[in-house]
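[Help] Beginner question about ligand-bound structures

Sorry if this is basic. My supervisor gave me a protein sequence and a SMILES string for zinc ion and asked me to "get the holo structure". I don't really know what that means in practice or what format the answer should be in. Inputs are pasted below exactly as I got them.
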Amino acid sequence: MTPYEQIAAWLTSAKSAVAFTGAGISTESGIPDFRSPGGVWATSTPVMYQDFLDDADARYEYWRQKSISHADFMESGPNVGHQLLAQWEQAGLLNAVITQNIDGLHHVAGSYRVLELHGTAREIQCLDCNYRGDADPWVKQFLAEDAVPPCPECTGRLKHATISFGQQLDPEVLQEAAKRSENADLYIVLGSSLVVEPAATLPLLAKRNGAKLVIINRDSTPHDRIAHQILNESIGDALSKIADHCPQQE
Ligand SMILES: [Zn+2]
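Answer (accepted):
No worries, everyone starts somewhere. Holo just means with the ligand present. The predicted complex, written as structure tokens, is below.
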């Protein structure tokens, strides 16, 4: 049995399979990893959350950086990896997607149960009154006026609905992700180096509770030695080969 056949067999028989995705799935959509040489942080220092709260100049710098990455997000679309995960959820094979990514591409692909650990850059949120809305018109307003837009409800501080450096993860999202990980019987890591928290811990929760652990990543990860299957190749290619061995849905 090939690894693809084996993973397909696990996926077909799983009752609560979970996919955990990181930057690697989105680089296949042309979105640069922020930390990579082409990413925005190669030339800019990220704005810390406390500075955003306290300082109008920091808020301007934040919006300037976000308007650059926003263009990358809006120009990109989901790739075959995102699409297959959405199809597997619709077919009842996949229970949920937990992601470190903020590009929203799982939603665009049609995934429904998505836990975005670091929030979404497709929306903005007011830190003062919790107003939320699509990010796109606000980024356009920032670029047109070269000024940080105020909240339309309370004139408060608008920020992308993502987790900044120095900002706590949303405890509800984190708790739900931990619960889904504990209850998983198959855990497929896709494009995450599993170094930063909670990415380092969640697969361990799954494994400890009896899940089969599959890691699909270009490079090695600290959890490779406890994984049941490891594929060091493109996520789109790997998932396509796995899908070839899953039962046809129509
Ligand atoms: Zn507000």
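A couple of things worth pointing out: The beta strands are 17-21, 96-99, 114-116, 119-126, 132-134, 158-162, 186-190, 212-216, 229-231. The chain is about 40% helix and 15% strand. Feel free to follow up in the thread.
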